[in-house]
Design a protein that fits this description.
It is built from three helices and six strands. With 142 residues, the chain is of the alpha+beta class.
Length: 142
Amino acid sequence: MRPRHDTDPEGFIADFFTSFTADLLGSDEDAGLIVDRYHTPDIVQIADGHRMDRDKLVAHTRPVRRKVHEALAHGDRVAARYTLHVDNPKRPLAMEVHFFGQFTPDGRMRRSHMLTRAVPADPGPAPGQPAPRARDLPTESA
């Protein structure tokens, strides 16, 4: 993990979440040890009004992918907007996240506030591509 001041804010927040997720998914190491590498012991995250401390964060970790759309930094603070994709066996999920966080000089997260909203997991056709016709869409079996 790089210190926050070593990169631009968009790159920092993307690297932070990418590295954190990769370490969680690519290792048999205890999730608590990984969380501690990326967060301070007194971490507090508030997402949509729900408070998550270190223990809740460890319990909450699961496979996710993120795409950072924009980020800004000022001192030890970072604000970012990204899309969180969750690989769920029942159906794919996606959420747009508005993140406001405070980091230590060594790059660990101290606290954050997040606001989220559900967005389509499949963004649809690329710009300039025709939308699928009704007959091309998959149907649900009863």
